[in-house]
């Protein structure tokens, strides 16, 4: 009897049923108006009563939250592959003041997370920087934490954190998401995430799907200003002089090219950066992005996109400025493409890419800091030991 009770108690206390806020997968997410709005997602095993977000202007006062605002959270019951049910929450913190530091926490009256601090985008086009990582995907417990932590050490003031897809390897295995959020830890609650959909979001229960898995959207609250058929995977936002565009590289590329053409035709932003999981120019041995180039290259060249951030090839590469697949000559404007990886899975380098890639590397984990200034973009590529592997300065297009 004692043994059975002991077993029961052990099971109850060892599962996530009683997991606290440290296991809530709190993700601060970019909105389509980061001057005035930030989004947040989190999830629990037991449904919270009256889930909400509290937000206050950050200050050193212990009672900084005295005049806090409340935001109701939407809740969705998510059925996992093992038929268990968890609860995913999503909230939009709206009507914020630009260039202001806020503290927020998520939960309900019974249980709250810690207070996380973030800043809204400024109203002017001041300089800022952001972090970029290629596929985490593998080694989420063993290898990825050092990549996120080193990146954070290099740029703790990063305005946002872009992740170029394949966040986990098998999205139907819930433990992999748990591991990803372990790797990101409180950094994911503090720096707004800009996650990009990877092809592995289409892999579930041993099969490749035509449309992305149901485990993407409950983890994030992202802009839905792209194609209505690709919610939270095709979107854009403006941040102090930059238009950042996220494409879903796995489906509806031609439709997204039309959407992109219209978006870039209207933009008044000085800089345009695109992120898509699958690269237009491959660094992985035997791989090629011909299909992507056919769909997107003419639009990228037409608007002289400054930088394209990609993953998928599990190697590192940074191209020369390119136009129509060729190195540009003289002072002609070209687009720089970067392929990267932050996790432990590594591919062999494709040797036949030397004509377009200025630098390549393999068998290493990387992170990148992009400095956005009115007169130039600077991309610094670091290996996870903090060594600067590559730095490129990009001049603006005369079109903008
Ligand atoms: Fe991939
Ligand atoms: Fe991958």
Q: What is the element layout, followed by pairings?
A:
Blueprint: H1 2-14, E1 27-29, E2 38-44, E3 52-57, E4 69-72, E5 74-79, E6 85-93, E7 101-108, E8 111-112, E9 116-119, E10 128-133, H2 144-154, E11 161-163, H3 174-184, H4 187-190, E12 193-195, E13 203-204, E14 207-208, E15 235-239, E16 242-246, H5 253-266, E17 271-275, H6 290-302, E18 307-310, E19 316-319, E20 322-323, E21 326-327, E22 336-339, E23 357-361, E24 366-372, E25 377-383, E26 388-394
Parallel strand pairs: 10-11, 11-12, 16-17, 17-18, 18-22
Antiparallel strand pairs: 1-2, 2-6, 3-4, 3-7, 5-6, 7-8, 7-9, 10-24, 13-14, 15-16, 19-22, 19-23, 20-21, 24-25, 25-26
Helix pairs in contact: 2-3, 5-6
This protein binds fe (ii) ion (2 copies).
Walkthrough of the structure:
The protein folds into two domains: about 20-120, Immunoglobulin-like (Sandwich); about 130-395, Metallo-dependent phosphatases (Purple Acid Phosphatase, chain A, domain 2, 4-Layer Sandwich), CATH 3.60.21. About 15% of the residues lie in helices and about 30% in strands. The chain has six helices and 26 strands. The strands form six sheets. The chain has a seven-stranded mixed β-sheet with strand order 15-16-17-18-22-19-23, with no helix packed on it. α2 (about 145-155) packs parallel to α3 and α5 (about 255-265) packs parallel to α6. One fe (ii) ion binds near residues 137, 166, 198 and 314.
């Amino acid at each position: 009897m004692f043994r059975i009770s002991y077993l029961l108690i052990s099971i109850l206390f060892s599962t996530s049923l009683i997991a606290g806020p440290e296991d809530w997968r709190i993700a601060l997410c970019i909105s389509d108006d980061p001057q005035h709005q930030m989004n947040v997602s989190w999830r629990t095993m037991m449904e919270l009563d009256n889930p909400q977000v509290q937000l206050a202007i950050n200050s050193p006062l212990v009672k900084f939250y005295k005049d806090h605002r409340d935001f109701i959270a939407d809740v969705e019951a998510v059925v996992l592959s093992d038929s268990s049910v968890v609860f995913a929450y999503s909230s939009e913190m709206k009507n914020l003041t630009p260039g202001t530091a806020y503290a927020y926490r998520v939960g309900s009256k019974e249980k709250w997370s810690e207070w996380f601090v973030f800043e809204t985008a400024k109203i002017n086009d001041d300089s800022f920087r952001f972090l970029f990582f290629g596929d985490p995907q593998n080694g989420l417990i063993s290898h990825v934490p050092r990549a996120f932590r080193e990146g954070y050490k290099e740029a703790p003031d990063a305005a946002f954190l872009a992740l170029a897809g394949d966040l986990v390897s098998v999205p139907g295995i819930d433990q992999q998401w748990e591991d990803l959020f372990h790797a990101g830890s409180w950094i994911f609650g503090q720096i707004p995430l800009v996650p990009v959909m990877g092809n592995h979001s289409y892999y579930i229960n041993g099969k490749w799907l035509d449309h992305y898995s149901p485990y993407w959207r409950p983890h994030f609250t992202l802009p839905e200003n792209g194609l209505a058929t690709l919610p939270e995977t095709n979107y854009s936002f403006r941040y102090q002089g930059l238009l950042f565009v996220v494409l879903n590289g796995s489906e509806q590329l031609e439709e997204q090219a039309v959407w992109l053409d219209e978006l870039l035709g209207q933009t008044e932003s000085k800089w345009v950066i695109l992120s898509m999981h699958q690269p237009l120019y491959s660094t992985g041995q035997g791989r090629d992005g011909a299909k992507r180039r056919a769909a997107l290259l003419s639009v990228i060249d037409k608007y002289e996109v400054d930088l394209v951030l990609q993953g998928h090839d599990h190697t590192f590469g940074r191209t020369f400025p390119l136009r129509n697949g060729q190195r540009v000559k003289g002072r002609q404007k070209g687009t720089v493409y970067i392929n990267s990886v932050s996790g432990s899975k590594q591919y062999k380098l494709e040797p036949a890419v030397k004509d377009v890639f200025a630098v390549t590397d393999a068998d290493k984990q990387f992170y990148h800091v992009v400095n956005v200034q009115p007169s130039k973009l600077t991309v610094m590529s670091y290996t996870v030991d903090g060594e600067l592997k590559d730095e490129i300065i990009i001049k603006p297009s005369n079109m903008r």
